[in-house]
Amino acid sequence: MYAIIDLETTGGQPTQDRITEIAIFIHDGEQVIDQYETLLNPGRPIPFFISQLTGINDDMVRDAPKFHEVARKIVEMTEGCVFVAHNVRFDYSFMKKEFADLGYNYSRKTLCTVRLSRSLIPGQPSYSLGKLCQNIGIPLNNRHRAAGDAEATAILFDRLLKITQQSESLTQPGISPADTLAAVDAVAPSGRQPKAAKQPSPKRVSAVQEAIKTALLPPNITPEKVASLPQEAGVYYFHNEEGEVIYVGKSINIYKRIQQHFAVDYKSRKSLEFKNSISDITWHLTGSELVALLYESDEIKRLKPLYNRAQRRSVFPAGIFLRTDENGYLRLYYGRADDHAESHPLIALGNQFKAKGFLFHKVSKFGLCQKLCDLYKTQGSCFDYQVHRCKGACVGLEPPEEYNKRVEEAIESFTFEHGSFVVIGKGRREDEKSIVLVENGRYLGFGYVDGEFSARRIGDFKDAITRYNDNKDVQQIIRQYLRTPHKDKVKIFR
Q1: pLDDT tens, position by position, for the chain (494 residues)?
Q2: With 0-12 CB in 10 A as exposed, 13-18 as middle and 19+ as buried, what is 15?
Q3: Greatest pairwise CA separation for the chain in angstroms
Q4: How many whole angstroms separate alpha carbon 63 and alpha carbon 34?
Q5: Which helix (H) or strand (E) holds 411?
Q6: Quick one: CA torsion of 15, 78, 190, 192, rounded to 10 degrees?
């Protein structure tokens, strides 16, 4: 059973707009067997431009029922039905939101007649309801009213079912989709299947089930495109119609991760805009999960895609530095990278405010001295010593050896355990290895070597990598990766 639905609303955002009219046509796979339509009082003014488009104004809905008054009717009428609409995400998102406001989880399988039409009637200049109906000869009365649009969608859906049923006998070389539609109309001029054909053909069922399965895909992404995605580690790119990269992601299985992207029933305006903008998918295989993480970070900084929030910063002008004073105390301090060009930061940060906050956190967590971290300017003891939180390194009461142990623990919490090392992992092929190189605490880049490659010196690995920028994000990626279970080999250089 199929519930063919059209809604009119006060706007395009389910989170803030409301339904003003609903029409439901129940189709049993053979013909329309029931229908329902009503105006709804949205409980808010209808914008003028919406009234101009639909013809529905505030006076018309003033005495109409509110959604909660017809909710039970909708649930009972659509129970066990596939939710069908032209651009189903729009109507289904509004319906789910209205029910969610009532504390009810409205859930139905969905089918989009836009997607089904693209599959079964290819080559049309437009798949908007009005243009498509005009091009294939479906009457569309009362455009932008729920009943008129739902009735036209029901006729369209009926024809699409018949195309699948007739495809084996009618879709021969030289016969166009228009010829096929004409043949279908000749079989059933009324737009309804004769009652003698009681059971849908397997071909019809297959096409409809495939449409249901792919209803949540972006409009311009085909099931074939998704099926072609590799089930391997790498970085993937979503492109818009102009070919611009609008999102960069990474996964150990690109196919599964993108399936997860598209399985989400996006509801917010920005999320729907993002999904509908995707027109192509490309990818870059890395073999290694760590390389995928690092390469994704670098690509986001390089391309600055519209829909990537994290890791877009490409410049880190501040950082945390280390020096040893004349008394042998290790002293952490923050500052501008330009002011300390002779010293590479232990960790790079976005600005001095963030660097200062970061250092305060480490002082508190590891019991360090505010004065020795340049956070408390004084000739005597620091404030923490006066309240018994500092052990007196600031006035020479705590030996450097004891204090420095906590400094080293603090440094280890945000730097690498070993200063120079290479991470050797899976390559893109069986006869290949990936390498990620860190020297003196600084990330140098990654590359690939032959499976038989061996090296004794760190310089041998330098010749095999492509250089990439070091920054706070990649340092954190490497630290977290090494602290979680993995199968990579870590070669340490002393």
Answers
A1: 899 999 999 988 888 899 999 999 999 888 899 999 999 999 999 999 899 889 999 999 999 999 999 999 999 999 989 999 998 888 999 999 998 888 888 888 888 888 888 888 888 888 888 899 988 888 888 888 999 999 999 999 988 888 876 654 444 444 444 444 443 343 333 333 333 334 444 444 455 555 555 566 788 888 888 889 999 999 999 999 999 999 999 999 999 999 888 876 555 667 778 888 999 999 999 999 999 999 999 999 999 999 987 766 555 678 899 999 999 999 999 998 766 555 677 887 778 898 899 999 999 999 999 999 999 988 899 988 988 889 999 999 999 999 999 999 998 887 776 779 999 999 999 999 999 999 888 899 999 999 888 888 898 999 899 999 888 789 889 988 987 889 999 998 87
A2: exposed
A3: 100
A4: 25
A5: helix 400-414
A6: 130
Residue from 303, 309, 290 nearest 445 by CA:
290
Q: Where are the alpha helices (DSSP H) in 42-176?
A: 48-54, 58-61, 67-78, 88-101, 113-120, 129-136, 146-170
- Cut 0.85: pTM above it: no
Both tokens of 420, joined, read 């120079």
* Residue that is written with structure tokens 């760190």 in the block: 458
CA distance 212 to 486: 39
The three-state secondary structure class of 453 is: coil
Contacts 24+ apart (CB under 8 A), 300-308: 300/248, 301/469, 301/471, 303/245, 303/248, 305/238, 305/245, 305/246, 305/247, 305/248, 306/246, 306/247, 307/238, 307/246, 307/247, 307/274, 308/247, 308/248
Q: Which secondary structure element, helix H or strand E, spans residue 482, and what is its range? A: helix 472-482
